[in-house]
Design a protein that fits this description.
The complex is a heterotrimer of chains A (303), B (447) and C (299). Chain A is built from 13 helices and no strands. Chain A has helices at residues 11-38, 57-62, 65-101, 107-120, 122-132, 139-146, 160-185, 189-197, 202-213, 215-231, 234-240, 250-258, 271-302. In chain A, α7 packs antiparallel against α11 (234-240). The longest helix of chain A is centred in the first third of the chain and has 37 residues, at 65-101. In chain A, 58% of the residues are buried. In chain B, 64% of the residues are buried. Helix content of chain B is 40%, strand content 11%. Chain B has a four-stranded mixed beta sheet with strand order 7-8-6-9. A three-stranded antiparallel beta sheet of chain B has the order 3-11-4, with helices on one face. In chain B, β1, α3 (58-74) and β2 (78-85) form a beta-alpha-beta unit. With 299 residues, chain C is mainly alpha-helical. Chain C is built from 15 helices and no strands. Chain C has helices at residues 2-17, 34-61, 65-70, 82-91, 93-124, 130-141, 147-156, 163-172, 177-185, 190-198, 203-214, 216-232, 235-240, 249-259, 264-294. In chain C, α5 runs antiparallel to α6 (130-141) and α5 crosses α12. The chains are: A mainly alpha (303), B alpha/beta (447), C mainly alpha (299). The interface between A and C is large, with 118 and 122 residues.
């Protein structure tokens, strides 16, 4: 039951709350639930083509012998991508935040620089890194050459995904740093002083003071990162195109199936099929995010 | 890189991907619909706004813009709103604008599929044509301006829904004439000649072939070229497709596997790390002499010509993937950007007037000159370059991806269905592995 | 405070014993500690990784096309600033940037307001089934990609190809907004609601004037997160806004890249033109950022 409401009649609260709920339901929930409906049809991107109910056919196709290998590969890529991005992005961001929190000169500048990619946007990031990893004429190729090596970079089946992960981390680090930095600055200075007097090393101060007290920031960052990276495909798309098997992510497959002229996992497949992949992804992302959320909340409570 | 737009990339990609077909039936069987009927589009006086969308590329955009300007001059009451959509956005934008009904002239190419191909493989454009999404242009008098063989190739169930704006060929390779002269090389006509030529270049420290492998599909052109030589006629390609669909031909059989073997060998002659090189950096590499040849379509000739400038002369010949010279004598091609009028267009009168205007030989000549397409109409003067390849293009010979209907039930490795993407270094497989993977994915889709 | 108190005790207990195997064994406070040196080195490496690509971009923008192809990696010799003029002329970027600013400002504001309106009563438990509503906030985080159906919705509402329709769709993706606001609101004592109510402050006045001044940081955070999403969108804009005059800057730049494919100098110049106003705006706004994110994650 609801709590005591101090503001007299609840009508005004109900009004604004209802407006908010209706807004979300109309523009976000209804379209999302409709995706579930579409996943049982063979709807196509071009209008006026007759649409048929085909039951679970799209899901059957997803798990069919012909498609399963590809889809599992895409799923594995997605998990590797999300795991690597989450771990490295948060780990590195934490170190940067700690370093920036010490009294070094120019920290505002450093912070601004790390945040820059977030401001620049995906198109710009794609252009910059394509230039740098141009195998015939980019600076990365020059560096490889110093070691007598060469690489196709985004064209290399083994290197493409790690490079995409690298660029994804490069792009997303700024926000994670800012969230950590805010959390760190909220930690009372005297805690560190006590720790120092007690003889704690920098590492111990990090492990025993900073990290435990940063638990809420860690929860926020990890959750943002997992949800974001499980659903993101833009960086992979701008760097390696929609159909590179090495960087095929589930979300990229959905995008290219829906609207991208996707030829990666079934040529003239319908948008109904894309909707089915969306739903499968929704379930996967939901399970993982909820599990992580519950775990991190529990961990916070223990701190 | 997907942020880049290329001449005909969507068309090629769609060709590789959606591959609805012109069957041999379409080419050989008579098509009776084009003919003398009352013109409907030329009667009324066009006014208002003409919303016109195409997928963008420098050369064809320039061609359309020139025609648009001339059209507006002739019909001052019509304002042409021309949007050249970046290729990567084309599927999304065209579908959404068609749905919204705010486009009068767009691109569509419905293709028939052979009877032995399951109906589920039918392309979106064909389904849309079945549903009456596009206006039937068969009876429009301006269709008579087009070359009959081209019309036959683009007919759908005996009707014409689109006006192809040209023809491109893409089973050939550009070569640098001065490099060829330097090493005393002649245009090869058999596969062994070609291998010898490439080895000569290699032993002289010259990369034989430039391929923009990062974009995927430019490497796919080598696969299409391999099929062109090994299955030279339309009947051969049809038989191959029929065999694949009825299961009598396996992708691991000797001849289909040979396609991948050719691809593998061509990759071996490609420039270092070609798998990471984007298609749009190829023209400058070719112009700098970084490689002696580049496998590309005729649509890219204007770009190559402007990159090369006066540094050297270059030419184009079919990649001789067969051991028999006669099988290597034709270039495979496809019709280019096909204009269609949506049935829900708000300004059909202007759209039909535009098509009428566009197809008039004098106006169309302007377009062909700027776009670099081979003409889809007789009696339109061709560029010197297109004249130079005329011996290979006496008849319109559709390339493999134009004939093959991809099976949506098959797996990703059997998409084209020759698995060129998995061959190392684009993928990480040998010819045998790639053939086995694609056979597995193909046969799984046949049930 | 008790948690911190405990923490402090834990720190002092645990840290007295073990001092080995760590990078920094120094005690006391000399002018420059080893920790600071390590920090400087680490930051220097990070700076190289971030600044080099940007510098390289500027360097490329200063090369003419022939120079780029003959000398792609080296430092520019021609200092060809003509690229900027050409890119500015052909790109129409001023209009695109203005569009983006409009979409970002309005959509992020709207979604912050909606998040607030939803989060406050749920966080306070003023509504029935608060847990259920809270569950909805979590589900909002990872709704399936609904491009196609959102497009159909706008079409049916007559909002297709309108700036309003696009803004509404962008604003409806609330993301973490309701979650972090409701978390933060818990740190505001409930007694304040009651005190305000006793003073005759109505619900709306409290929600829209009193409360925001108390939870500024979390509102700023919500706004920033949302703004980043809107600013970087390219897919929804492609589908919902076919009219190029309404394109956001991402799409404008994308189209520009599509048209001037292999002219790297020109592309780089265009990229810089687009980025510069943002970078300047960011430099002015960034000092609010950390403070804004501040308490948001405390809840």
């Amino acid at each position: 039951m609801s709590e005591f409401f101090p503001f007299g009649r609840r009508a005004s609260m109900r009004t604004t709350f209802s407006i908010g709920v209706v807004f979300v339901i109309v523009f976000a929930l209804v379209p999302a639930v409709s995706v579930l409906v579409l996943s049982f049809t063979d709807i196509r991107s071009i209008p006026y083509i007759p649409v048929n109910w085909i039951g679970f056919d799209n899901y059957v196709t997803f798990f069919s012998a012909a498609k399963l290998g590809y889809n599992i590969q895409a799923l594995l890529n997605t998990l590797v991508f999300a795991l690597a991005v989450t771990i490295f992005q948060n780990g590195i961001a934490l170190l940067i935040a700690v370093a920036l929190n010490s009294k070094i000169k120019g920290r505002t500048f450093y912070r601004a620089v790390v945040f820059m990619p977030t401001v620049l946007g995906v198109t710009v990031i794609g252009l910059i890194w394509s230039l740098i990893f141009n195998p015939s004429a980019g600076p990365a190729a020059s560096i490889w050459k110093l070691f007598g090596a060469n690489s196709a970079f985004f064209g290399d089946q083994h290197l493409a995904l790690p490079l995409v992960i690298f660029v994804q981390i490069w792009s997303g680090l700024g926000l994670a740093v800012v969230i950590f930095l805010a959390g760190i600055q909220a930690i009372p200075e005297d805690l560190y002083e006590v720790a120092s007097i007690d003889g704690a090393s920098a590492w111990q101060r990090l492990r025993l003071v900073t990290i435990p007290l940063l638990a809420p920031s860690i929860t926020a960052n990890v959750l943002l990162c997992i949800v974001g990276s499980l659903q993101s495909y833009q960086i992979a798309y701008v760097l390696t195109g929609p159909n590179n098997p090495a960087t095929q992510l589930l979300s990229l497959a959905i995008f290219s199936q829906t609207f991208g002229g996707g030829n990666a996992s079934g040529s003239s497949a319908s948008q109904g099929y894309a909707a089915a992949i969306s739903m499968i992804q929704f379930v996967i992302v939901g399970i993982i995010s909820l599990a992580v959320l519950v775990y991190l909340r529990k961990r916070e409570a223990r701190m | 890189m997907p942020t880049m737009t290329l001449r005909s990339r969507p068309a090629v990609r769609r060709g590789l991907a959606l591959t609805a077909v012109i069957a041999a039936a379409g080419l050989l069987a008579g098509c009776t619909s084009s003919g003398a009927s009352a013109p409907t589009g030329t009667g009324g006086k066009p006014t208002g706004t003409l919303n016109f969308i195409v997928s963008s590329s420098d050369a064809s955009d320039a061609g359309f813009r020139a025609v648009n300007a001339a059209f507006e001059k002739k019909y001052p009451k019509v304002k042409v709103v021309f949007d050249a959509i970046p290729n990567a956005n084309w599927p999304a934008t065209s579908a959404s604008r068609l749905t919204a009904g705010n486009v009068d002239l767009t691109l569509a190419g419905p293709k028939e599929i052979p009877k032995y191909v399951p109906a589920s493989a039918k392309g979106d454009d064909a389904r849309a044509a079945d549903a009456g999404v596009y206006v039937d242009l068969s009876k429009e008098s301006f269709m008579k301006n087009l070359t009959p063989t081209v019309l036959k190739a683009t007919a759908y169930n005996g009707k014409q829904y689109d006006v192809p704006t040209g023809v491109s060929y893409y089973t050939g390779i550009y070569y640098n004439e001065s490099i060829f002269k330097k090493y005393d090389l002649k245009i090869p006509t058999t596969w062994s000649d070609f291998v010898t030529l490439c080895n000569t270049l290699k032993s002289n420290g010259v990369s034989p072939i430039g391929i923009g492998g990062k974009d995927g599909w430019p490497a796919g052109l080598t696969m299409i070229s391999a099929v062109q030589g090994l299955y030279p006629t339309t009947a051969d390609k049809d038989a191959l497709q029929k065999g694949l669909y009825d299961g009598s031909v396996k992708l691991t059989d000797t001849q289909p596997a040979q396609v991948l073997d050719r691809v593998k060998q061509i990759y071996g002659f490609a420039q270092q790390n070609f798998a990471g090189v984007s298609y749009q950096s190829i023209p400058s590499g070719f112009a700098n002499g970084s490689f002696a040849m580049t496998a590309d379509g005729t649509w890219n000739e204007p770009t190559l010509a402007s990159a090369v400038g006066s540094k050297f002369k270059f030419g184009y010949f079919p990649i001789p993937t067969s051991d028999t010279a006669a099988d290597n004598a034709t270039l495979g091609g496809k019709t280019e950007l096909s204009l269609a009028v949506p049935s829900n267009a708000k300004n059909k009168t202007a759209a039909l007037a535009y098509l009428n205007f566009f197809t008039q030989p004098a106006n169309y000549a302007k377009f062909v000159k700027l776009s670099g397409f081979a003409s889809a109409e007789p009696n339109v003067p061709a560029s010197a370059f297109l004249n130079s390849i005329a011996p290979y293009t006496k008849t319109f010979n559709p390339a493999w991806d134009y004939i093959f209907v991809s099976n949506p039930k098959a797996g990703a490795k059997a998409q084209f269905p020759f698995n060129y993407q998995s061959i190392s270094p684009l993928g990480s497989s040998s010819v045998e592995q790639a053939a086995t993977q694609s056979e597995k994915d193909w046969s799984a889709g046949l049930s | 405070m008790t948690a911190i108190e405990n923490q402090r005790r834990a720190v002092s207990v645990r840290s007295t014993g073990d001092t080995g195997s760590t990078r920094n064994k120094r005690r006391g406070r000399p002018p420059v500690t080893v920790g600071q040196v390590i920090s400087y080195i680490f930051i220097a490496i990070v700076m190289v990784l971030y600044l080099f690509p940007l510098v390289f971009l500027v360097n490329t923008a200063l090369k003419s096309n022939p120079e780029f192809f003959s000398n792609p990696v080296g430092i520019t010799r021609t200092f060809d600033i003509g690229n900027f003029g050409v890119a500015w002329q052909k790109g129409n970027f001023a209009a695109y940037v203005l569009n983006s600013v409009l979409y970002t400002a309005v959509a992020a504001t709207l979604s912050t307001v909606v998040s607030l309106v939803l989060a406050f009563p749920v966080s306070r438990g003023y509504l029935k089934h608060s847990r259920l509503w809270y569950g909805m906030f979590v589900v909002l985080l990872f709704l399936p990609n609904a491009l196609m159906t959102q497009f159909q919705l706008l079409l049916r509402l007559g909002l297709y190809d309108t700036q309003l329709g696009y803004i509404l769709i962008m604003a409806s993706g609330l993301g973490v907004g309701p979650l972090i606001i409701s978390g933060y609101v818990k740190s505001v004592p409930k007694e304040l609601d009651e005190a305000a109510a006793l003073d005759g402050v109505g619900y709306w006045r409290f929600l829209f004037t009193f409360l925001p001044s108390l939870i500024k940081p979390v509102l700023a955070t919500t706004f920033i997160l949302q703004a980043i999403g809107v600013w970087n969108d390219i897919i929804l804009a492609t589908i919902m806004l076919p009219d190029p005059a309404k394109s956001p800057v991402t799409l404008g730049l994308f189209a520009f890249q599509g048209t001037y494919t292999s002219q790297w100098g020109l592309l780089s110049a265009a990229t810089i033109i687009v980025a510069t106003p943002l970078v300047i705006a960011y430099i002015f706004l960034q000092r609010y950022l950390v403070g804004g994110v501040g308490g948001a994650v405390k809840g």
